Amino acid sequence: MSKSSREPLSDRRKFILNMARGAGLATLGGFVWSAYVDEVTASTLLLRPPGALVEEDFLKTCIKCGLCVEACPFDTLVLAAPGDHKPVGTPFFTPRDVPCYMCEDIPCVPVCPTGALDEESVSKGGVLDIREMDMGLAVIDQESCIAFWGIQCDACYRACPILGEAITIEYAKNERTGKHAFMKPVVHGDVCTGCGMCELACVTEKASIFVLPREVSTGKAGAHYIKGWDKADDARVKDAKAINTKTRLSEQSAMDSLNDSGDLY
Amino acid sequence: MKTVWNNYRYLILRRMTQVGLLVLYFGANAWGWTLLQGNLSSSLILGVVPMSDPYAALQMLVAGAALAMDLLIGVAVVTVFYMLIGGRAFCSWVCPINMVTDAAALMREKLEVNRVQNGKVPVKRVTRYWVLGLGLVVSALMGVTAFEFVSPISMVHRGLVFGMGFGWAAIVVIFLFDLFVLKNGWCGHVCPLGGMYSLLGKFSLIRVHHDEAACTLCMKCKDVCPEVQVLHMIGKESIPVLSGECTNCARCIEVCDDDALEFSIRNLANNNNRGASDEISK
């Protein structure tokens, strides 16, 4: 036995060791806990109730009380249970099962005690307006949508609660038969609320039109693309100044740079 | 029959409260009752009075969420209510996990699990305050309500009201932990919500009082108590149980054959003189 193990520990040493042990165990637990929480909140393919804050804020603000679920008259909203592979306890809906029927009084939103469902984001001029809602965006798979095969089907167009605005039908000649028309559904992202009525109505075995969260279903052109034909958009470059970079070549004329730059031969 | 009532009156009342509240919450979701809507995280009485879990609100605060007025009112209602009747009355009268841990404790007693387990306790009672603090640290670092994503309490309660999924696994985990790892392990050592309510309960007006003169030192109360450390005065001093860790479950009152323990409204003036020795035991 070594000398140190025989002598009783001094109070000071005991205190320091206990503090270190506490801090170490807390760090260990903290990292495991953090890793777990990070994993279970990572799901993005999830449709939230009307007026939900952006996912990052929603996850910290939703208290998981289910009052929105109880307020929903169509049983559209459900709370994620363990095993659903979604952030546990948070509300979501699956349009192919039950879509959002876009109640005009939006009962699920004002009942939220924490503001995770934001009344203002679904209001216009201080009055609740369900068309302001933006839960997702319907996307069409043109490979499986039978309207794109040339078969007449306007199930999604008819089911859309914002009829003729969120989904329109585009006509095109069917060159294969030479005498028929394609009647292709087109979703308009500025109007679509993501309610999912079209997804429920879709006649194909697995829905060919389906709602995805906006972050997933939309791209972004970037600020450097300007619609020059759109006055409002063009105004963005009204005060822009050209940036001229000078190099050895740009000081010469175009012809010079081609023939006399000296590094061609 | 009379002795059954006498020996189990608070236990029966507690089970009725626990199950009754569950039925009310369940009815709100299933049949649209409005007496008590939501769940233990946040609820509404009669669609008007909000109640919210103060620990959940604290996590939201440090995670960086904007706290809505309804939530703050709800937290105030819950905090004041449990401050008055004893913080951990939540644990023994409301929380659904109480039935799980009580069942585990009973089975542990019947199977005499203690006799095959070495004396060394793997987790201390003070752990709950560490978990309480750690939950806030993780919430702040990760920007989400950390405990709310792991809490077996809300998982089970939410499950019973809204649909269980694999939530039953949380029940099994706590049951096995309490049965084979540590007596009163979850509720008495780990649960940060219990820790939170222990802190609130320090100010409680309703207390168990001990009458030392009547005590015969049978120690039945200590056998049955899930937080034995709060009963340190048994047979020594006639003072109330002042620790916030007491759950006001009243099992000690029921098992006492000598009327040496009884509920009463705390005498605040007396406390100031006698209570100084009774800090949160660690």
Task: Describe the structure in brief.
The complex is a heterodimer of chains A (265) and B (282). With 265 residues, chain A is of the alpha+beta class.
Topology:
The complex is a heterodimer of chains A (265) and B (282).
Chain A: H1 3-6, H2 11-40, H3 55-61, H4 67-71, E1 78-79, E2 91-92, E3 123-124, E4 127-128, E5 137-140, H5 155-159, E6 167-174, E7 180-187, H6 197-201, E8 209-212, H7 214-217, H8 231-234, H9 254-259
Antiparallel strand pairs in A: 1-2, 3-4, 5-8, 6-7
Chain B: H1 2-31, E1 36-39, E2 42-45, E3 49-52, H2 54-63, H3 69-85, H4 89-93, H5 97-111, H6 127-142, H7 152-162, H8 168-181, H9 185-190, H10 192-201, E4 206-210, H11 220-224, H12 251-255, E5 261-265, H13 268-274
Helix pairs in contact in B: 1-7, 2-6, 5-8, 6-10, 7-8
Describe the fold and architecture.
- The complex is a heterodimer of chains A (265) and B (282).
- Chain A has 265 residues and is of the alpha+beta class.
- Among the domains of chain A are: 43-134, Alpha-Beta Plaits, CATH 3.30.70; 136-218, Alpha-Beta Plaits.
- Helices cover 26% and strands 12% of the residues of chain A.
- Chain A has helices at 3-6, 11-40, 55-61, 67-71, 155-159, 197-201, 214-217, 231-234, 254-259, and strands at residues 78-79, 91-92, 123-124, 127-128, 137-140, 167-174, 180-187, 209-212.
- Chain A has a two-stranded antiparallel sheet with strand order 1-2. Chain A has a two-stranded antiparallel ribbon with strand order 3-4.
- In chain A, strand 6 (167-174) and strand 7 form a beta hairpin.
- The N and C termini of chain A lie far apart (84 Å).
- With 282 residues, chain B is mostly helical.
- Chain B folds into two domains: 2-199, no CATH class; 205-277, Alpha-Beta Plaits (2-Layer Sandwich), CATH 3.30.70.
- Helix content of chain B is 54%, strand content 8%.
- Chain B contains 13 helices and five strands.
- In chain B, the strands form two sheets. A three-stranded antiparallel sheet of chain B has the order 1-2-3. Chain B has a two-stranded antiparallel ribbon with strand order 4-5.
- In chain B, strand 2 (42-45) and strand 3 (49-52) form a beta hairpin.
- Chain B starts with a helix and ends in an 8-residue tail after the last helix.
- The model of chain B is unreliable at 271-282 (pLDDT under 50).
- At the A-B interface, helix 2, helix 3, helix 4 and strand 1 of A face strand 1, strand 2, helix 2, helix 3 and helix 6 of B.
